[in-house]
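Title: Prediction job returns without error message
Component: structure pipeline
Severity: low
Priority: P3
Assignee: unassigned

Description:
Job completed but the reporter wants confirmation the result is attached to the right record. Sequence as submitted:
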Amino acid sequence: MTHRFKQASVLLMALLMLFYGCGFKAEVLANTATENSPEITEPTAQTDPAFTGEIEDTKKKSPELDPGEQAILDANGITATEDTGKMDASGNYILGETASGGTVTCSTSLRTLASRSFGDEPCYKKFQRAAGWDDGVIYSSDFASPDGSDIITTTTPILRISDNGVDQIAYCADPSLNIPSEVVGPNGLVTYNRESWNVQSGRIRNVMWHGYHDGNSGEYYVQTWAAIRVIAGIGAYTDYYMTDPTVANLVNTLSYQNPNNWDASWSIVPEREEAVWNASTKRQETGWFQTYCNNIADHGTYTVTLPSGVHALLRNTSGQVYSDVTDQFTIYDDDDFMLYADGSYQGEVSANITPTTIKRHSSDAGNPDACVIYAPDVPDTQRLFVSLAVGQSPLSSGFRANFTGATGDAQLQKTDNRTKEKLAGATFGLYDMKDNLLKQGITDENGQWNVTDLVFGDYYFKEIAAPKGYELNPAKLPFTVDGIREVVTVVMANEPKKGPFQFIKQDAETREPLKGVTFVLYGCDEKHPHNDLQDDKIKSCWQTIVGTRISGTDGKIDFGNLYAGEYQLVETKTVPGYAKPMGQWRVTIDPEAVETVKITAKGTAPAFVKDGNALKVDNQKNDKLPFTGGNGDHRAALMLAGMVFFLAAGILALILKKRNLKNPKESSEKIERKEENESEK
């Protein structure tokens, strides 16, 4: 008796709650009880100290019905569905599985939902069609309570299918059948098979894409479901659904708009650029790498990392250059860039770029519209619409920029330091600033060595071998190829080699050195056959005085080191008691010859002789006249010759006089004939 009384009390209390619309409170209490109930997980060897090697078949227990809920089910002849108790990682209740190993889930425990009433709909009808139902007067706002407050959004059962790595919202397709329930099918969980005919409808896919998403209201889920039914032509109330503005917008507008970035493409053009020298900006530059976006509504960014020494200019879609950057830059996927570097930079800059922009597409090659239907293997249960084939993948493109280094030319000019003449035959090396020999060459007849195609940078020339007759110049000649000058000219002057010229003035007989003898050494800058003797009256040769020297007590005359060439040596003053030579000397200096000094007497000058390593020349005393090539005493012979000459002349004069005296008549006749001839003239 007591037990029946309690049952009656519980039933009466439940009817009062239903009458006053208090089901929401019961749902909250049920949810609270569900959230606070402990979750039972399968024990493992790592977590259960009492693990014996066998795993028990445990599961999350179904929420317990309170007496009022149980009374409602009993009164309507409804048996609560047996809950599998399994949940996925997101906390959704597992309703079934797909043939390929995926899962079908619901956000709400349908066993709990079946025992509650919301709004003006009996609980047992919600158990039958909870995710969207129609009885001729039901529309999306039926999830609101009679007083207008939205009380169902937190408990709207949201269906999902996760299959082949894609997780999407699902919608019931058969309103007259039961919603997917937590029942056990023939092979355990209910198995949902993808139907072979599928739904080739891009519009349904678009409604699913633009419709309900996680975080939206439960009402929007029902509105999306209604729009799908309108497009698919399911049910008799499609016209009534279209009176809802949200449903109408989904059907009339959004169903024709593909998902953002559907079949999008992104590329960088050109894929390769050769940097060239810009004479105006004095740098190597590529062209613009332009980005092309196709079917992209959700733009992302991309990042490029630059090597040291390379800059990037950035340009937006308006054509405005807005930044000059180094190291790394991140810009929008529709902005462009160009690269530049100084003339010395060499190398390739390349990258395969994956922007944050994604491409959406059908992940099912056989279903380009990406909309399919799954059917359960149990009777009286609805099929499910889902857009599982909407996948996404990254976009990518790449670029290459080749910097060969700008090049320029350099010219080495070799000259004589003294005459400024161009020197051929000098061997030079071209070096970088790390002292690496890059090239080697010889100056031509114009004294030049031309080097072409030098990458911009710093270099130096260095002489390896000097021309014949010149000293090696060890100096480095640095220069920079930078494009400022078309040809960089470097000049090096070489000093001709020199040879020493000195000798000793001595007495011809005693070989004693003579002090106070003056010598002048002349040179000639003209390139012509030289005169044998130096003469102040002849201005075309031997007019340049190289030096004047006076012998000391040791008789030495030292003109120091002389450049290679010919000179004229003249003794301009001797010491008292000695005769000044009546000739001069031609001196030839050749520093590279075995005999560096060669002296040739001109006129009646005495010859130079070599005594060991010393050159010597004699002076004769006044009573002796020197001859070229000797130093003997010929004065007496000359006087005797003179006396003989005068005697012969006197005798000849006497003979002629006697002849005239013997023939006076003949002589007169000759005189008369001469006078006649003159008068005739």
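Comment from assignee: result matches the submitted record. Confidence is low (pLDDT under 50) at residues 1-63, 112-154, 625-638.
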